[in-house]
Amino acid sequence: MNNSHDRVMTRLLSLPGAIDDRPFGPEPLVAKVGGKMFALLSAGLPHASVSLKIDPVEGEALRETWPAIIPGYHLNKRHWITVALDGTIPDELVDDLIRDSYDLVINGLSRAARDALVR
Questions:
Q1: CB-count burial class (<10 Å; 0-12, 13-18, 19+) for 57
Q2: Model confidence, pTM
Q3: pLDDT tens, 98-118?
């Protein structure tokens, strides 16, 4: 694992109610909130990557702007992106995308599930 992987893992799990789930074995880390996935983090070679939920229009614009952002790998290509953690995407943008993905999932939860989270 590289520093980008570790930094992103720390950021994912710092969000309120976020848990580290490993349904597929030791890799990848599946970050969930309220029982729903908002990120999938893989160590990968040569670079780690993180897949995130995204608004479809924003996702299209990001894919056109950043070569390191592609449609979600093994996910719904319209609603997910995969970001290569190769150093070409600013940390601030990765952090914003993580928060956007988290917020999209939070907003899709029932009121009771949202209220159960300490935010």
A1: exposed
A2: 0.88
A3: 999 999 999 888 888 877 775
